[in-house]
Amino acid sequence: MIGFIGIGIMGSRMAGRLLEAGHELVVYNRTKSKAEPLIEKGAVWADSPQEVGKQADIVFTMLANPQAIDVVAFAENGLLNGLKPGALWVDSSTISPSQSVKLADAAKEKNVRFLDAPVAGSTAPAEKGELIFFVGGEVDALEEARPLLDIMGKEIHHKGPNGTGTSMKLVNNLMLGQSVAAFSEAVAFGESLGLDKEGIIKSLFAGPTAAPILHFKEKKIMNEDFENADFKVNSIYKDMELASEEAYAHGFALPLSNLVKAFYGLCQQQGKGEYDFATIYDFLKKK
User: Fold this and answer.
1) What's the rounded mean pLDDT across residues 245-266?
2) Banded pLDDT at 287 (limits 50, 70, 90)
3) What is the rounded distance in angstroms from the CA atom of residue 9 to the CA atom of residue 35?
4) Catalytic residues
5) Residues whose CB falls within 8 Å of the CB of residue 59, separated by 6 or more in sequence, listed in order
6) Are 152 and 18 in contact (CB under 8 A)?
7) Is the dihedral of CA 65, 271, 219, 172 positive or negative?
8) pTM higher than 0.85 for the full model?
């Protein structure tokens, strides 16, 4: 039996891939209604993370923030009080490397193996099983999880011991936040010069400067469709804040990233935290 905790935008699609592949699944989410579509397809509902742990040999967690993963892990009815000795816990949440190491150490005390395995990719890749996993942890644990990761993703990058998977995810999302902001500013600047937005975007993609990720934001910026979020302002701000905290702890400056993070923070202050983070285009255009 496979366990899955965290049935949100990403978790629901990842768990759905496992169900479609014929695996038995036991699920938990703070809001049960979000798990109903999976339950209708055959997933078993558990009343707590602890109950998931009792029933599953491998458990995936995909949670929104560091506070949520701590509650799921360490509460009285939490996952660590349910997992069986020898079980494997794979955390795909985006948290700090130091927190991943803390979870790995806590799991080890229970004779449970732990992988940090956050993902690159949004809703469409999650639905298609095209996520990229950044993994930290023991090779033997990864090889056990690999067949399931292959169902949900197209690439697996093993970065080293526990904490290195989450380190790579912060590096990835740091660049993601900056790339979308730079693209948005360039498009808005071109419009201020009287250029046509569609023409600007077409020309940028014809040249060497536009990164592949920006194709996923092209329609949102073109149509200014930001309320239907693939990846929220709140999420990119949280990830960039985690990167900033880690950089501070390691004595490394992130001047560009901290400036871009501040702009996403201003989007939050304008009540757009739940919007897609490409809404930074709209914010920059109006400045």
Assistant:
1) 96
2) low
3) 11
4) 169
5) 2, 3, 4, 5, 52, 53, 79, 83, 87, 88, 89, 90
6) yes
7) negative
8) yes
